[in-house]
Structure formats: structure tokens, C-alpha cells
Amino acid sequence: xxxxxxxxxxxxxxxxxxxxxxxxxxxxxxxxxxxxxxxxxxxxxxxxxxxxxxxxxxxxxxxxxxxxxxxxxxxxxxxxxxxxxxxxxxxxxxxxxxxxxxxxxxxxxxxxxxxxxxxxxxxxxxxxxxxxxxxxxxxxxxxxxxxxxxxxxxxxxxxxxxxxxxxxxxxxxxxx
Length: 176
Fold this sequence. Notes:
Blueprint: E1 8-9, H1 11-18, H2 31-47, E2 52-53, H3 57-65, H4 74-85, E3 94-95, E4 99-100, E5 103-104, H5 121-129, E6 136-138, H6 143-153, E7 158-160, H7 163-174
Parallel strand pairs: 1-6, 2-3, 6-7
Antiparallel strand pairs: 4-5
């Protein structure tokens, strides 16, 4: 797997990585996807390549959905690492974004992104505000598959760790 040195990590990547130690009997996530998420988390930690918003909105979402104790899963270890290291990241990895009602001033204006999830807009706003437009790592949220074209048109990339899973789930839900 060829992962970028600097990126944003959607919360579902860490949650999917947690399935390696906390299997969910209701999950249809394939083992290859879980492994890809574990490897991505380990890569981000090793490279110290995480890009975040300076106001901690992404970190706050991580804290709500993962265990800050750092265990038992890889995703939990990731949020603990973020807690312990976010202020030691390079200044270029902490990006200011501006809240604008239920979105952000830095969220790109594009007709194909009009129905983009409000809770995920912070990831796109940070990527768009960063001068290098780092990719967003995505695991199992199939809605992102439908937005990938519009995101590419505004110069943003989504790196699907579970490409076939996300694409297949999107096609089953939407039909195209």
C-alpha cells in the first residue's frame, strides 16, 4: 500500500482499525480492510504525518468515538498518540478553519458537494485550506465514493483504504 507522508485521517479509519482487536459481529468489514486501516494508522504515527485543524474539531470527534486510554485497539492507540503529540506536530500540520453555520468558510463551493455530510466537512475544509491539499484517508464510509469526483474537481483527493468495499457498498445503496 502506497500511503502519503502527510494526510488527514477520517475517524472511521481508526474505528475500523479497532476491529482487529474488538471484532464486531454486526460488521461486514473484510479482514483486508481492517488490516489496511491498521497499517495506515501505524504509517501515520511512524511518519508523524497527521494533518489536523488548529481548533481541535477533528481531535474532539476522535475523542468522542475512540478511547483516549489508548487501548485496546489500534484506533484507540491512535487517538492517544494524537492527544500526546498534536502540539508537537509541525505548524504546517495544524490548519485554521473558520466555522460558518453548519459548515466552514474553507469548505469548497461545488454543486456536487451540496449534500456533503455536515459532520465530515471539517476534514474537507482542513484539506482545502492546507497549501499542499493533503489527501484524506477514508475506510468504510461509502458516501465518500459518491463525492470523490466533485472533490477531485476542487483539487482534493480521497485515499480509499477499502476501495472495493466502499465502492461496492455505495453501488448497493445508490445504484451507480
